[in-house]
Design a protein that fits this description.
The protein has 468 residues and is mostly helical. It is built from 17 helices and no strands. Helix 2 crosses helix 9 and helix 3 packs parallel to helix 5.
Length: 468
């Protein structure tokens, strides 16, 4: 366990950020590897895999319920030195992770084709996306236990083991993807099914490694089957913090589904170009998101320790770092987008759409970095309802106008990207206002009379004896 309630906040952020970023980038690289090797199968395959990957937002919403609730409550327990409560929360989260994993497998088997029919541009895209989803669902189901164990470690200030496991898993995925997708060395090409299967095998191996580490090395929190029996009060503690954060990811799913919906009349090339551009955008946003995620446990431990000044300082310094990082990547996307998008497709129309998307949408990267930071701070404070509110605002200010615009004469796809910039900027302003209000509520100075009463009530230490 690492004490984040003492020491330099910037040093804590910078120490935790690289491992968190490496772990997240490894997840994104897995998705980009799938797109890279699938690109040789044609636009329908790329569009199908990209659109199917958007369904992962719904599963990520459930993962956020567990991850955010686990991080916040365990970090608070660490801050107030309550190890039994930290262990109880962890084991209740493990029980929930098994339930959510089973629900994911069932939902994937039943709903994959219906989802693809709602967003895909043609029958070939529907078939490719459905096939990928069915083979990719085991990976998503296994991610729940990995999410809980990694979140428990992050709440205690330990991030390196989860990063190493993620890196190993992505190496396995990279090795398996060409073999299973294209049949390298075997002659048995599975196509888009191979992309999903490669990810599932890699996640299974990574999850097993993380569980072995957790049982052999981790000491502050530990698996305790006696605590896996559901305890409603503690499950509600996790869900009260986690559900609004999960709702945030559900809102992102709606946001992305609307994009695919309004683009489908432009054909598979448009959806494929957007899918590639969105994945690359997600990749270059990872450093700022990692900074924000590092700030969450720091804020949580300090909040548990009752140190409001350090919570505020955590926000200010993490916001400055994320803004600087996002500004740098925005300039790169504006000046040299080809460096970020090279190699993902040989289709000229698809790549032109990806270039256009990245150039326009990168203008909101600083605003997005502030959204990341505010969201992580709310998680550290244990109140994620404002995060859901700001995300819902973005969905409504974007989705309804986007659908309306798509019905108007002269509608062009870049209208969707400019509308996204406006909606993201509005969400950033709302998030900052909500966080300022939360700080005032949580850390309001005591009235002068009440402060005086507390001082009078405190026992006065006897004067120290002075040696003769």
């Amino acid at each position: 366990m690492k004490d984040l309630a003492n020491g330099s906040i910037v040093r804590h952020i910078l120490a935790m950020t690289p491992p968190i970023m490496a772990g997240m980038i490894s997840i994104m690289v897995c998705q980009l590897v799938d797109l890279y090797f699938v690109s040789g199968l044609g636009d329908a395959a790329v569009a199908g895999v990209a659109a199917a990957g958007n369904a992962g937002f719904l599963v990520n919403a459930l993962m956020q319920v567990l991850g955010v609730g686990t991080v916040a409550l365990i970090a608070h327990a660490v801050g107030r030195k309550d190890r039994p409560d930290a262990n109880l929360i962890f084991n209740q989260a493990v029980a929930l992770s098994v339930l959510f994993g089973v629900l994911t497998l069932v939902a994937g088997a039943v709903l994959s084709r219906a989802y693809m029919r709602s967003v895909a541009a043609d029958e070939a895209t529907i078939e490719a996306g459905t096939t990928y989803l069915l083979w990719f669902m085991p990976a998503l189901a296994l991610e729940f236990v990995m999410q809980v164990t990694a979140s428990a470690l992050r709440a205690t200030g330990i991030v390196r083991p989860a990063m190493l496991v993620r890196v190993i898993a992505v190496v396995i995925n990279i090795a398996l993807a060409p073999v299973l997708i294209s049949g390298w060395g075997t002659g048995y090409a599975l196509g888009v099914a191979g992309a999903g299967l490669a990810s599932s095998i890699a996640v299974a191996i990574g999850g097993l490694m993380l569980l072995v580490y957790f049982r052999k090395v981790e000491r502050y929190v530990a698996f305790n089957p006696a605590q896996w029996r559901p305890q409603p009060r503690h499950l509600m503690r996790i869900l009260n913090v986690g559900l609004p954060a999960g709702g945030e990811f559900a809102m992102m799913f709606i946001f992305m589904a609307v994009v695919y919906y309004v683009l489908r009349d432009f054909g598979a090339a448009a959806q494929a170009g957007f899918g590639i551009g969105q994945r690359v955008l997600g990749l270059i946003q990872m450093p700022a998101l990692a900074v924000a995620l590092a700030a969450g446990p720091i804020a949580g431990q300090n909040f548990g320790a009752g140190n409001g000044a350090r919570v505020r300082e955590t926000f200010v310094k993490s916001a400055l770092i994320t803004s600087a990082v996002m500004a740098g990547f925005m300039m790169l996307a504006q000046l040299r987008p080809e460096l970020l998008l090279a190699g993902f497709s040989n289709d000229r129309e698809t790549m032109e759409i990806a270039y256009l998307f990245l150039r326009i949408i990168s203008l909101n990267m600083v605003a997005q970095g502030l959204i990341f930071t505010c969201s992580s701070m709310f998680q550290g404070l244990g109140n994620t309802k404002p995060v859901l509110l700001s995300s819902a605002t973005r969905v409504f200010t974007y989705s309804l106008p986007a659908i309306w615009l798509s019905t108007r004469p002269g509608f062009r796809m870049e209208h969707v990207w400019y509308l996204s910039i406006a909606a993201t900027t509005l969400q950033a302003a709302l998030s900052l206002w909500l966080l300022r209000r939360e700080f005032r509520k949580r850390f309001a100075p005591l009235p002068q009379d009440e402060a005086a009463e507390r001082v009078e009530a405190e026992p006065v230490a006897p004067p120290a004896r002075v040696p003769a």
